[in-house]
Design a protein that fits this description.
It is a single chain. With 124 residues, the protein is an all-alpha fold. 82% of the residues lie in helices and 0% in strands. The chain is built from four helices and no strands. Helix 1 (9-28) crosses helix 2 (30-73). The longest helix has 44 residues, at 30-73. The radius of gyration is 37 Å and the shape is elongated.
Length: 124
């Protein structure tokens, strides 16, 4: 892992001549030029990644900002959700009670199908 080094203005001026030497080395060596061209592709990939990441984060920000806004504007939201869950459980119990009795329409129809399938006499 490389560390970033902060350079003073004097150190930057000293390195300007060194940059010219590095440019001369790159011009004379084809392997180094190939590495340099790969770096340009890498920078394109990096740019594409950063663009997509920026889009993803913007969408997440919008999602959470709107959700928090709705929750702040409607603080009773959780109570309403809990009320609806309780209502659904009550309805489920009522429906199952109605359908599971011995004389329930569902039970009678299933018994008719079962009796016809196995040749049994229907119960009177």
């Amino acid at each position: 892992m490389s560390k970033k080094i902060k350079l003073t203005n004097g150190q930057i001026k000293e390195l300007k001549g060194f940059e010219d030497v590095v440019d001369l080395v790159f011009e004379g060596n084809p392997e180094l030029q190939a590495m340099d061209s790969r770096r340009s592709n890498d920078s394109y990939d990096l740019y594409t990644f950063l663009e997509t990441e920026n889009t993803r984060l913007a969408l997440l920000h919008d999602f959470f900002a709107n959700r928090v806004k709705i929750h702040e504007e409607n603080p009773q939201l959780m109570e309403l959700i809990e009320e609806q869950r309780n209502y659904m459980l009550k309805l489920e119990k009522e429906i199952l009670t109605h359908l599971s009795g011995p004389q329930a329409p569902f039970q009678r129809r299933v018994s008719v199908i079962f009796n016809q399938a196995f040749g049994l006499k229907p119960e009177e």
